Amino acid sequence: MAAQSLSAVDVAVAASTAEAAGGTPPRRRRGARAERLAPLVLLAPAVLIIAGLRLWPLVLGINFSFTGDGDRNGMMVGFDNYLTLLNDPLFRTALRNVGLLVLLLPVAVAIPGLLATFIYLKVPGHRLYRGVYFFPAVLSPVIVGAIFNLLLAFDGPLNALLGGLGIGPVDWLGDPDVAIFAVVGVHVWATFGMALVVFLAGFATLDSSLLDAAEVDGASLPQTVWHVIIPSLSRTIQFVFVTTMIGMLTSMFGLVYVMTSGGPEGSTYLPEYYVWIQQGQMNQPALASAASTALFLIMLVVGLAQIGILRRAGKED
């Protein structure tokens, strides 16, 4: 018993001596190592799922885009598919429409941002507006497209209203110069409710004392929005910009298919619709993979450019 007590005392003395000398007990070192590894262990399942279901198919798709279709099925053809895309007027139209989406993006972000501001400031009926604005987000794009096909028909109610105001009817879905704007407008109406919810979540983190100070200083609503709300919600605005752009590039297929089927004269083609045409109707999966890869690169470049511009603007403010 005395020997055991002596050995326990010796161990304790040795541990305290090592700790005083700058060392760390083995048990504490193991605990620190486990604490460092815990986040990696928790993230591992999600990383493996993303790598297996997202990144690996992406790599396979990029590799497939360098193969041929038809008689050259399975053969490596280099950049032939990408050259075919650049020479295809429909794909060039799709790229031009992507540029139009980028130009219209600030409007698509400003609408839910302003409406969320009014709701946060508790305008009369703000609780009702919150539900009304979000309701279109739960509708299927096919249903939304069918509804607006009726509203925007040449002999539909909207043109009847314009006729009553003395304005000539507009061929909303049949005019190549108008159709893409009609489809984008419907998409913004159908999806801005989700961005509005994100903005409201951002407002929950806003310091109300800043708004009180602006009110005391006599700032108008536009001044409060520009100098207080926008700088305070810069991270939220960045997130909404990127997600809205991705939604425009990847979630408009249903509307395009139902409302215009890519017409008139291919004026409403977007890259995702072009991919579907090449894969489903033209039976050119390799060319469709090349178009998908191009769409991925477009989203990557546009997203990184948006983040860079918004961060620079935030630092300047």
How does this model look, in words?
The chain has 317 residues and is mostly helical. It folds into two domains: 2-64, no CATH class; 80-316, MetI-like fold (Orthogonal Bundle). The protein contains 14 helices and no strands. The longest helix is centred in the N-terminal third of the chain and has 39 residues, at 26-64.
Which architecture of the largest domain per CATH? Orthogonal Bundle
Number of DSSP helical runs:
14
The beta-strand count equals: 0
Class computed from helices, strands and strand pairing = mainly alpha
Could you name the CATH topology of the largest domain?
MetI-like fold
Query: What sort of overall outline do the alpha carbons produce when their principal axes are compared?
Result: flat
Q: In CATH, what is the class of the largest domain?
A: Mainly Alpha
The largest sheet is: none
How far apart the termini lie comes to 74 Å
Percentage of residues in helical conformation? over 70%
User: In percent terms, what proportion of residues is strand?
Assistant: under 5%
Series of secondary-structure elements, N-terminal to C-terminal? HHHHHHHHHHHHHH
- Report Rg: 29 Å
